[in-house]
Amino acid sequence: MVVSMKHGQTAFDHVPNAYETALSQYDRAVKHLSLDENVVEYMRWPRREFTVNFPVRRDNGRIEMFTGYRVHHNTVMGPSKGGIRYSMNVTLDEVRALAMWMTWKCSLVNLPYGGAKGGVLVDPKTLSVREKEGLTRRYASELIPLLSPHSDIPAPDMGTGPQEMAWIMDTYSMTVGYSVPAVVTGKPINIGGSQGRNEATGRGVIICMIEALKRKGLTNPGDISIVVQGFGNVGLHAAAYAYELGYKVLAVSDVEGGVYNPNGLDIPAVRAWAAEHNTPYGYPKGERVSNAELLTLPCDVLIPAAMEGQITEHNAPHLRTKMIVEGANGPTTTGADDIINDRGIQLVPDILANAGGVTVSYFEWVQGLQAFFWDTDEVFRQLERILVKAYDATVHMAEDHGVDMRTAAQMTAIKRVADALLTRGFYP
Ligand code: GLU
Q1: Which of the following is catalytic: 105, 117, 132, 322?
Q2: Residue pLDDT, tens place only, 132-150
Q3: Would you say the CB of residue 155 lies under 6 angstroms from ligand 1?
Q4: Which residue from 125, 148, 187, 245 has the highest number of Cβ atoms inside 10 Å of its Cβ?
Q5: 185 Cβ below 6 A of ligand 1
Q6: Which ligand 1 atom is nearest residue 358's CA?
Q7: Residues 10-20: what's their mean pLDDT?
């Protein structure tokens, strides 16, 4: 897949196919598990793939056709769960990869869900609010046969947020004739969203980073420098929470480019500046860097929180970090994994590091089903408990089998789904 290069988006014009990465990670992990070969083959396949082509009326009166997908990778553990992405990189293969990663992510943190993902091939920045609402509602209505609180529960992902979830919830509710808040998560709080859901993914990234640092005896935040790629929902909240805890955040970026200050950035100030200018790129109290340059800045922890395929075999030899904590889904290719492992760089994999989002989505779903809502302290306390438990399970698997953290996380997750599948049995 060739993506067009914005200023320094990535230094390479070839972004590896995410589904190839997901499948090669899976093949690696199952090699260390003695599973029934029928089970291994079954879990390799997406269960359902839904493609829709639908019309949206533009503000100039013309109708434009858009293509969207929803893939259910595996539903052995429960209803399928996963976000919806609006981006110009959306392909069926990308959605397949992201759906598969959701299956493993939900299993790793022990949520009663299978994995799904959706995507619409659109640049949301080119739509007016009215057009975005039209696109979201029509896409949601195309997905109606799949959706319900007990079958498939969407959430935000790249290019979508609480407002899109509100439109999906409303479209579904209008169709069935009564309000069903639990059909989506990541909703605004005033219609049944959970406290802490917006911050959850970024906060979870930092909780996992702290676990990894603690195991190396590194407990003083002021001594640790962090570089964050991406300033969307994940990168922004990861940087903000790290800053709040006293870590030194040296650089942040978005698709336009990044800002770097070796003495540390004032993240609330960068955030305010970025809100005004629509990007942190150009923030005056730091140097401008491209995204490619940002990835190879010297730091203790690198947090890729933008998109898949950013750390490749081309730039992995040049990384100057001691640890990578993956905020994005699939930011590292399999070739890069080998180099990172050889170089002794510690990696906390995506399905663990960014599982905070779907974990609080689960809390939101539970709160919606019970119509009983929790306060922020309760949400963050339960979030930390679940992530630390998953972190421990991954470390145990890594130690028991002598494998890296990604393989260990995948093995832990895959084994649970495999066991559940065998308990349920193959139908018919
Ligand atoms: N899109 C997020 C992810 O990749 C959240 C999914 C969810 O909350 O269902 O994990």
Answers
A1: 117
A2: 999 999 999 999 999 999 9
A3: yes
A4: 187
A5: yes
A6: 8
A7: 68
- Give the distance (Å) from ligand 1 centre to CA of residue 84: 8
pLDDT digits (tens, 9 = 90+) for 345-382: 999 999 999 999 999 999 999 999 999 999 999 999 99
Tokens found for residue 329: 């889904």
Among 157, 359, 366, the mutation site with the greatest number of ligand 1 atoms within 8 A of its Cβ is 157
pLDDT at 14: 56
Cα 288 to middle of ligand 1, angstroms: 31
CA of 115 to the centre of ligand 1 (A): 10
The model carries a pTM of 0.96
Concerning whether 117 is annotated as a catalytic residue, the answer is yes
